[in-house]
Amino acid sequence: MPELSRSQVVVYAAIAVALLLVGARAIRGEDGTDRSFAAGGGSQGGGQSFSISGQGGDLVVDVTGAVQRPGVYRMPAGSRVNDAVIRAGGAAPQAELEAVNLAARLADGQQVVVPERVPGGGSVAGAESEDGPISLGTATAEQLEGIDGIGPVTAGDIVKFRDEHGGLSSVEQLDQVPGIGPATMEALRERLQP
Fold first, then answer.
1. Cα R_g (the chain), whole angstroms
2. Cβ atoms within 10 A of the Cβ of 117, count?
3. pLDDT tens-digit profile of 31-44?
4. Residue 123 CB partners (closer than 8 Å, separation 6+)
5. Rounded to 5 degrees, what angle do the CA atoms 31, 83, 145 make?
6. 158 FRET partner, CA 20 to 30 A, in 86, 148, 172, 183?
């Protein structure tokens, strides 16, 4: 075997160190270290951040309404609405948290709407009006009863189904609630938003 010159040994050592660094970086990247990205927008004018990790099963939710930093956030599977509100900087001073089920499990693609307290009692969720769509994630049984074909029992069943399933990401999921037929589904599509 031929002898190596001093310069050849240095080159081979440099290559070995470079390979070790690349390998260490690859291993560290596979361990699921988070990378943060800035997301523009928000009512405060500041940047928001969310993390993307290599783990499967994460949820992406839209937190809007009376929170400090509304936006889209990636949450671990099994998170609750309260976790999403905290991730969005917490409730704003005018928030009506009593109108939100903070213990409900989050569903992928869910919109969490934290309504604002209005003078004289009651609450308003963003731009909703009395004739506008009702948020499926925050609708009360009383609000659901105002929809054609929904009585007190069915409204209670919808709220119970939503809470048991950790929220709903689409109106079509209500087809699984007993007592809701095709005509009721049409009324729900017109009056509810995810």
1. 25
2. 18
3. 444 443 333 344 44
4. 96, 99, 115, 116, 117
5. 135
6. 86
End-to-end CA distance of the chain: 73
In this structure, is the dihedral angle defined by the CA atoms of residues 49, 55, 61 and 66, taken in order, positive or negative?
Answer: negative
The domain segmentation of the chain, as residue ranges, is: 36-121, 128-194
Dump the DSSP string for 79-140: -BHHHHHHHTTSB-TTB-GGGS-TTSBP-TT-EEEEPEE-TTS-EE-TT--SSSPEETTT--
Place of tokens 């005509």: 183
| Most distant CA pair in the chain, distance | 93
CATH class, domain 128-194, is mainly alpha
Do residues 47 and 39 lie in contact, with contact meaning Cβ atoms separated by under 8 Å?
yes
Chain segment 89-119, per-residue pLDDT in tens: 999 999 888 888 888 888 888 888 888 887 6
* Predicted TM-score (pTM) above 0.70: no
Q: Identify any residues that bridge with 62 across adjacent strands, giving them in sequence order.
A: 72, 111
Domain 36-121 has CATH 3.10.20: yes
